[in-house]
């Protein structure tokens, strides 16, 4: 009989001002932190997390203002990386995480690795330059038709122009939008939404980094 994958549980970290909501799978092993792109939410990682099974402890976080995480007055990249570091330390796994950033969260994953111990950084759908001016332009690049129908439900964006503008500060930093290899390991799939095109294959890539 095959072991059952760990059940998903939902948690919250922080105060009402900086509250981050996250899902967790598994209580042991190396933490794998999954970060979604702007206007999406943590549910886009559910298929991959389920495929990872008991190989690690998976955490999928809602960015501030997304999903169930509270909006903020300041979306500073370094402050959010610091909040993630405290959240990860609170898991008591005592191992450097694998950071996975989709879309604009590639910048957050790299900012985390620049300041905190990190096993590997995986980025996908990285922004080429700054954010587009409108939500419509931002979502036009999604190309959801290439995602198998059962997984499209996990890539539903919230068309919030105010939220998009709030994250413009990420692109005013030096080197924003440019890939910077992490010294341990870096994997950058080139197709859009590779984690939803084939969750099992993407999960296998992450297992190789543990």
TrEMBL record:
Entry keywords, A to Z: Hydrolase
Domain called AB hydrolase-1: residue spans: 32-197
InterPro entries reported in the protein's UniProt record: AB_hydrolase_1 (IPR000073), AB_hydrolase_fold (IPR029058), AB_hydrolase_sf (IPR050266)
Gene3D superfamilies cross-referenced by the UniProt entry: alpha/beta hydrolase (3.40.50.1820)
Source organism of the structure: Actinoplanes aureus
Name of the protein: Alpha/beta fold hydrolase
Origin superkingdom: Bacteria
SUPFAM superfamilies linked to this entry: alpha/beta-Hydrolases
Source taxonomy: Bacteria, Bacillati, Actinomycetota, Actinomycetes, Micromonosporales
An MF annotation (GO) of this entry: hydrolase activity
């Amino acid at each position: 009989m095959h072991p059952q994958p760990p059940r998903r549980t939902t948690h919250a970290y922080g105060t009402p001002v900086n509250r981050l909501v996250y899902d967790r799978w598994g209580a042991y092993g190396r933490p794998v932190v999954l970060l979604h792109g702007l206007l999406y939410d943590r549910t886009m990682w559910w298929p991959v997390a389920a495929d990872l099974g008991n190989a690690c402890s998976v955490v999928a976080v809602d960015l501030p203002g997304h999903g169930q995480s509270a909006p903020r007055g300041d979306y500073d990249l370094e402050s959010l990386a610091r909040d993630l570091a405290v959240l990860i330390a609170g898991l008591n796994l005592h191992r450097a995480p694998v950071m996975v950033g989709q879309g604009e969260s590639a910048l957050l994953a790299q900012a985390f690795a620049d300041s905190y111990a990190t096993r590997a950084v995986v980025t996908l759908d990285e922004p080429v330059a700054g954010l587009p001016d409108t939500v419509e332009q931002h979502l036009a690049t999604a190309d959801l038709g290439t995602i198998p129908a059962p997984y499209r439900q996990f890539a539903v964006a919230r068309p919030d122009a105010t939220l998009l503008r709030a994250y413009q500060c990420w692109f005013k930093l030096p080197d924003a939008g440019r890939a910077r290899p992490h010294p341990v390991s870096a994997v950058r799939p080139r197709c859009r939404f590779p984690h939803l095109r084939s969750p099992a294959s993407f999960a296998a890539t992450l297992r190789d980094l543990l």
